């Protein structure tokens, strides 16, 4: 069980570091400031607006909607 705890702790530390880096740059952590996400689906287009920053790519908008 120690290995599961190790990976869980590592993932949370990585996630917090990523969010702090994006906050510093003013970018949405989900879409990395692009405002859209690229997906592969036969039913949708290749790019869709980021649902957490409403397509703006801004950290402030992401923080308001999270």
Please describe the topology of this protein.
Blueprint (H helix, E strand, L loop, with lengths): L1 H24 L10 E3 L8 E3 L9 H7 L1
Antiparallel strand pairs: 1-2
Report the β-strand fraction as a percent range.
Answer: 5-15%
- Helix % is 40-55%
Major beta-sheet overview: 2 strands, antiparallel
- The shape is flat
Parts with pLDDT < 50 across at least 5 consecutive residues: none
**Mean residue pLDDT:** 90
What is the CA-atom radius of gyration, in angstroms?
15 Å
| Order of helical and strand elements | HEEH
Q: How are strands sequenced across the largest beta sheet?
A: 1-2
Tell me the distance between the termini.
31 Å
Number of strands: 2
The secondary structure category is mainly alpha
Number of helices: 2
Brief account:
This protein has 66 residues and is mainly alpha-helical. The protein has helices at residues 2-25, 59-65, and strands at 36-38, 47-49.
